[in-house]
Amino acid sequence: MQINLDFLKNGFDFQPKLFSMLRDYNRQRFTKDLMSGIIVGIVALPLAIAFGIASGVSPEKGLITAIIGGFLVSFLGGNSVQIGGPTGAFIVIVYGIIENYGLEGLAIATFLAGLMLVLMGVFKLGTIIKFIPYPIVVGFTSGIALTIFATQIKDLFGLTMTNVPADFVSKWIAYFGAFDTINWLSTAVGIGSIVLIALAPRISKKIPGSLLAILIMTILVYLCREVFHIEAFNEVETIGKRFEINASIPAPQGLSINMESISALMSPAFTIAMLGAIESLLSATVADGVTGDRTNNNTELIAQGAANLVVPFFGGIPVTGAIARTMTNINNGGRTPIAGIIHAVVLLLILLFLAPLTKHIPMACLAGVLVMVSYNMFGVRTVKGMLKNPKSDISVLVLTFLLTVLFNLTIAIEIGLLLAVVLFLRRVSESVDISVARDHLDIAQGTETIIHEELDIPHEVEVYEINGPFFFGVATKFDEMMINIKDKPQIRIIRMRRVPFVDSTGLHNLENLIAMSRKEGIDVILSGVNPNVHQTLVNAGIDKMIGEDHIHDHITKALDKARQMIAK
Question: How many CB atoms lie within 10 A of CB 1?
Answer without folding.
Answer: 2
